[in-house]
Amino acid sequence: MRVTAALHVHSTYSDGELTLAQLRDLFLAAGCRLVCMADHAEFFDAQRLAAFLAECRQLSNEQIRLLPGLEFGCRDRMHIVGYGVGELVASVDPTTVIEHIARSGGVSVIAHPAPEHLELIPSFARLPDGIEVWNTKADGPVAPRPAVFALLQELRRRKPDLRAFYGVDFHWRHQFRGLLNEVTLEGDGERVVLDALRAGHFLGTHGAMRLPSDGVLPAEVLADFAVRNVRSGRLRKLVRRFKKWAGPLGRALPAPLKSQLRRFF
Description:
Blueprint: E1 2-9, H1 20-29, E2 34-37, E3 39-40, H2 46-59, E4 65-67, E5 69-73, E6 79-83, H3 94-103, E7 107-111, H4 117-120, E8 130-135, H5 146-156, E9 163-167, E10 179-184, H6 190-199, E11 202-206, E12 209-212, H7 219-246, H8 255-261
Parallel strand pairs: 1-2, 2-4, 3-5, 7-8, 8-9
Antiparallel strand pairs: 1-10, 5-6, 6-7, 10-11, 11-12
């Protein structure tokens, strides 16, 4: 069975704008049957985490599943998502967090790696299950960074089953959510979903584009990504500068305009 999925989604349990119920309805209306959550771990204690896990499962039914997950903040401002993880860990060491996710039976994914992280990740004693090669909140919705795809292929020589993940990093109602995934499931249940992600039984979808879980793309596609990512990045920088300039002067963007801009930035 092939289902449409949204990966890397935040709710009001951390810094998202929508409740779990609102997210379920929003993505269900968009044709999704799977929403993989990634709420920030630092917002939780044991009681709040238990409520989050219970609500994800309560809201799941034959139409749509909300897979619980946590995004762990590590040192050097690195973030690692643990899909299917329901336990906290008292560490900011990336390797320790990756090992914790594995012990919990989850799928570990380094989220939106910054340029400086591309040099750090190869030094890890243990690699994650995947790297988020396109995060439309961090990279923009137009094109990803080819450097992250290059890192993935370098690391796959060491860990051949390392996967390329595609996430929306969804926080706001009107945020761009056109990067989805097609996941092939052999059965039902959270374990089936996690096994499919770990095995690479998915591909990213963005309009007519189909992006494989091994991250192997033709050179001409990567070259096109490079050009388009730079162009869109310049525009995104201009918007950020304007917001920074307008804020101290009391010229904050009106909420309706800010909401619409989130469709594109």
